[in-house]
Task: inverse folding
């Protein structure tokens, strides 16, 4: 929440992983937008864009260093290795909450509409601590991705997990909302599920997502499956309960089959079949493996949490330094279509 008459300091947190092809375009668009907001006095002149390099293997960090050398609006965090997008978001917000009144997170590909940011700030001025950017059109997605996303939201809703459908990680949060988020210390936080639990005033703004202009998606099918499992296992014990019910059902079916076999024996009808026996063995064996795997996932997460290892390690931090020492502003960088190596 912004105090009346106060000009908020804004930090835009941008997680980056191998974004060398897209970063010059993203930086130019976001810098121009920040300059417009500063000229309108919607944000302070020392507001920042914070790129979080999630252990990129290309020239992403070199580009970030070049950007911040030529324009003070750019800052960066560099991880010691790849920790994942959720960790990059948490690191960026954790650093930003110390110095900023408002924090906006947005992906580096700018498929989420950055032109929505001024409206987000106005909603914050109106009293909202959290402003969600929500897609109102998934026509750019493939049928498979659209269907699996809808199925995921349906399952989570049935499990009473409060998610915002069609919302990714494009959102505005106030300092107090981010401070509350930082009290969640899971090793693998499912941010999209945690934020709706914070309970602060919220607003939704709708937009149409744009196709990626450069580079490739950092969320292939494998990562999408892991992300869905993180959300499911972080907020519900329903899979374990489902295994219990399935086990009870199989045991009940087994008793019925046993009674049927006894009746057949009493009637003198004895049928010996290798296939039916093997089918039963394979079915029960497979079910047991599934059950053990589900339970193992929960046990593994408990094991991970008890170690209390850091969620990320920051190798370099130029964001905090920007507020603790005087930074000279030089001529803004020229953006070209091809990145400089």
Result:
């Amino acid at each position: 929440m912004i105090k009346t008459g106060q000009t908020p300091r804004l930090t835009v947190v941008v997680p980056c992983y191998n974004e060398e092809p897209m970063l010059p375009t993203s930086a130019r668009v976001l810098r121009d937008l920040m300059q417009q907001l500063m000229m309108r006095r919607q944000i302070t002149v020392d507001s920042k864009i914070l790129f979080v390099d999630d252990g990129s293997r290309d020239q992403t960090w070199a580009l970030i260093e070049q950007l911040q050398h030529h324009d003070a609006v750019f800052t960066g965090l560099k991880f010691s290795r790849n920790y994942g997008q959720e960790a990059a978001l948490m690191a960026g917000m954790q650093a930003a909450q110390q110095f900023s009144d408002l924090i906006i997170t947005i992906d580096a590909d700018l498929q989420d509409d950055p032109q929505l940011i001024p409206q987000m700030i106005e909603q914050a001025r109106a009293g909202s601590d959290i402003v969600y950017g929500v897609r109102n059109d998934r026509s750019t997605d493939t049928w498979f991705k659209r269907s699996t996303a809808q199925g995921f939201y349906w399952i989570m809703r049935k499990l009473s997990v409060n998610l915002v459908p069609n919302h990714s990680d494009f959102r505005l949060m106030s300092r107090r909302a981010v401070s509350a988020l930082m009290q969640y210390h899971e090793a693998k936080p499912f941010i999209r599920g945690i934020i709706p639990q914070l309970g602060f005033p919220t607003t939704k703004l709708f937009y149409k997502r744009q196709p990626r202009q450069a580079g490739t998606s950092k969320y292939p099918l494998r990562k999408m499956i892991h992300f869905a499992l993180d959300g499911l296992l972080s907020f519900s014990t329903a899979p374990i309960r489902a295994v219990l019910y399935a086990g009870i059902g199989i045991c009940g079916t087994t008793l019925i089959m046993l009674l049927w076999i006894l009746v057949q024996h009493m009637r003198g009808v004895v049928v010996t079949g290798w296939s039916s026996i093997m089918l039963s063995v394979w079915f029960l064996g497979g079910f047991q493996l599934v059950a053990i795997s589900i339970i193992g996932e929960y046990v593994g997460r408990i094991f991970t949490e008890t170690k209390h290892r850091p969620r990320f390690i920051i190798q370099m931090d130029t964001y905090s330094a920007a507020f603790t020492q005087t930074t000279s502003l030089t001529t803004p960088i020229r953006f070209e279509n091809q990145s400089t190596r």
Residues 246 and 276 are 20 Å apart (CA to CA).
